[in-house]
Amino acid sequence: MSEGVGLEKIPLENQPHDCVFSPNSDHIYIGLVTGEIKGFGFNDTSFERKLRVRPSKKSCRGLDISSDGSTLYAVSKDGSINYVDAHTGQISHTKAQAHDNPISRVKLTMPNLVATGDDEGVVKLWDTRKPEAVRAYTHHFDYISDFYYEDPQRKLLTSSADGTLSVIDVRNNKPEPVGHSDDQEDELLSIAPLAGTSKYAVGTQLGVLSIFNSKQGWGDCVDRIPGHPQSIDALVSLGPSILATGSSDGLIRVMGVLPTKFMGVIGDHGEFPIERMKLSSDSKWLASMSHNEELMMTRVDDMFEDSDGEDAAEDADADMAKDDSDEDESKEEAEEDAEMEQQAEAQEKEAEAEEEEDSDSDSSPEPQPEPIKKKSKKNKHFIDNDSSAAFFDDL
């Protein structure tokens, strides 16, 4: 049992390719490049290895688990599928050559129905009780990068490096998709739903997040959201229109979609690209993996509660500040209006006073010159005299 202040990572000794949480217990299973599958029990502060099995000598490239948590479905580079008991590690069944090419992804859809996709774009559906594939789909021509299964509608979304997204109805007996997008001119790498909507986010090689709307058809995306500096290799839905994105720059970002809002970075794998991310069934833990030999565990259950509280407090403060500002502005406007009225009244009074003065001056007799005017005239004559220049020269 390894313990610490808080669970942050699980060392693995080898590079991981995929992982899956148990749906009904605090266990996680990791597929490694060596072909091994390791299972760990964990809590908030510690982890303990519970399982170690090697069903194939080639790398384990994909993992999924049954709805009751009893069986692991593991796919390998050698094209094989193995059913493994999640408690004992016992291999119950092996399909040695399930695909002619390395298998890249696996997904449990309906009970006893498993989907697999390989490096050449072939998708197969398997009834776990039968030895042969139920159906095979060949509409993709490059590797299958991700699966997402929409349970109520029984639809399997498939992304491929050929630049297209397809939708398979797992109940339909025809080996054709019910929807297939146009070429998006970019590799499609990951899929996640926008919870509470009919929209899906798809990560691309160029770092653009493409949004598809099932109500508007699958021919083309309805929106494109740039912003990631490198490819978006992994996507996980954390809540209504909230996504965790794993990029080739090693960062795990949280962002809101429609409206678009960058909410922060919650994980950093350093210089290594993020290959896969999975969310626990209770939405408490986000597991992520890169090219280093460890599994990063990030708590995500309480991050939005704190942020919501802070946002609410900030909004309340902003509203109070706005109200105070509005009151101050109203007072200033009232004072300005009063001052303008006073000025107008003063101007009116001045105008009336001037009119009275003008009327008084018109009616009064012309004033008589005072004796001093004569003196002033004499002074004027003295200055105008031609001898004044000599007078000033003498001074």
From TrEMBL:
SUPFAM superfamilies for this protein: WD40 repeat-like (SSF50978)
Keyword Cell cycle: no
Keyword Repeat tagged: yes
Renumbered ranges of WD repeats: 96-136
Keywords on record: Repeat, WD repeat
Residue ranges, compositional bias (Acidic residues): 307-342, 351-363
Sequence similarity: Belongs to the WD repeat WDR55 family.
Stretches the record annotates as Disordered: 307-395
Name assigned to this protein: WD repeat-containing protein JIP5
Any Pfam family the entry gives: WDR55
Organism: Wallemia hederae
Gene3D superfamilies referenced in this protein's UniProt entry, alphabetically: YVTN repeat-like/Quinoprotein amine dehydrogenase
